[in-house]
């Protein structure tokens, strides 16, 4: 029953997806001579979560994924296309090796070295162009939401 609050729940029946879930009642256990049935009731966030994907062959789903370059080296100016295949806006984290600036969906952000998280730094569903200015290596990370 610990921890309290919603935590990440992964189910082998849906590889690549996870849920934010919280246990609602104590588990019940039914045992027999050759089986054991455990029942746990969860309350889940309405959307299933999928971490962004690059084009790694083994984890790529040709039906639902879109290949994105989630890492890049920047020297001066670079435009990068990121595709949010989810149904909602996705919070974007940009990891930079040095300070630079980024323009995402008409918002300009000053980026520091390390992880950059901002409530306005998000990807809209579909194609998003990220314009970067500076020098260094960047990596993008987000989680998509699916019904």
Tell me what the structure shows:
- The chain is mainly β.
- The chain has no helices and 13 strands.
- Strands 1, 2, 5, 6, 7, 8, 9, 10, 11, 12 and 13 form an eleven-stranded antiparallel β-sheet that branches.
- Strand 3 and strand 4 form a beta hairpin.
Q: How is the topology of this model organized?
A:
Blueprint (H helix, E strand, L loop, with lengths): L6 E4 L6 E7 L4 E4 L4 E4 L2 E3 L3 E4 L19 E14 L5 E7 L3 E5 L2 E5 L2 E3 L5 E2 L2 E21 L1
Antiparallel strand pairs: 1-2, 2-5, 2-6, 3-4, 6-13, 7-13, 8-11, 8-12, 8-13, 9-10, 9-13
Report the major sheet.
Answer: 11 strands, antiparallel
- What is the string of helix and strand elements? EEEEEEEEEEEEE
Strand content: over 45%
Number of strands: 13
Shape by Cα distribution: elongated
Count of helical segments?
0
Radius of gyration: 19 Å
Question: What distance separates the N and C termini?
Answer: 26 Å
Structural class: mainly beta
Helix content: under 10%
Give average pLDDT, whole number: 87
Low-pLDDT parts are none
């Amino acid at each position: 029953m610990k921890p309290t609050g919603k935590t990440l729940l992964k189910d082998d029946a849906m590889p690549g997806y996870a849920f934010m879930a919280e246990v609602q009642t104590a588990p019940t256990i039914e045992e027999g001579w050759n089986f054991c049935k455990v029942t746990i009731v969860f309350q889940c966030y309405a959307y299933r979560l999928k971490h962004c994907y690059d084009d790694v062959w083994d984890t790529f789903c040709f039906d639902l994924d879109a290949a994105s370059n989630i890492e890049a080296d920047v020297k001066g100016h670079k435009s990068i296309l990121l595709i949010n295949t989810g149904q909602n806006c996705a919070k974007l984290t940009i990891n930079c090796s040095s300070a630079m600036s980024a323009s995402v969906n008409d918002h300009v952000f000053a980026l520091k070295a390390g992880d950059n998280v901002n409530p306005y730094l998000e990807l809209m569903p579909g194609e998003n162009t990220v314009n970067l200015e500076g020098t260094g290596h960047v990596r993008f990370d987000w989680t998509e939401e699916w019904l």
